[in-house]
Write a structure and sequence with these properties.
Elements (H helix, E strand, L loop, with lengths): L1 H20 L3 E7 L3 E3 L2 E3 L2 E8 L4 E8 L2 E12 L8 E6 L5 E7 L5 E4 L2 H7 L1
Antiparallel strand pairs: 1-4, 2-3, 4-5, 5-6, 6-9, 7-8, 8-9
Length: 123
């Protein structure tokens, strides 16, 4: 009886963790400048970011209020330390504009790489 209860508890706990591994993740993105993401221009401001996927490639959506402003693929790359705040990395383009290349979600030990940074990570 006791063994059955322990087995049931362990099975339930493992299922809970498995469901969490495939759950949609969320973060906030506070842009201090105008940045392009996959051709969409985002002005300085606060945005919500959601990503979903079970492997190193995830689908990222950027929202402002109820409006979805863009959806694009990204690569999840592990980092050595936990991100201490929501941050991003931008790259200056030849025309002078900037494009988003990485998102660093608060409290996570990974970053979301986008665009050229994502392509170079795949090689």
């Amino acid at each position: 009886m006791k063994l059955s209860r322990i087995t049931t508890t362990l099975l339930g706990t493992s299922l809970l963790f498995a469901v969490g591994a495939f759950a949609q993740e969320k973060s906030t993105l506070n842009l201090t400048e105008t940045i392009k993401v996959q051709g969409t221009e985002l002005k300085a401001g606060k945005y919500s970011v959601e990503w979903d996927g079970s492997g190193p490639t995830v689908q990222v959506s950027i929202h402002q209020g109820k409006n979805t402003l863009g959806t694009f693929p990204a690569t999840v790359v592990a980092t050595a330390v936990t991100n201490s705040g929501n941050a991003y990395e931008a790259q200056k383009e030849p025309g002078g504009s900037k494009s988003l290349v990485a998102i660093y979600p608060n409290g996570k030990k990974y970053q979301l790489e986008i665009g050229e940074k994502q392509a170079s990570a795949a090689h």
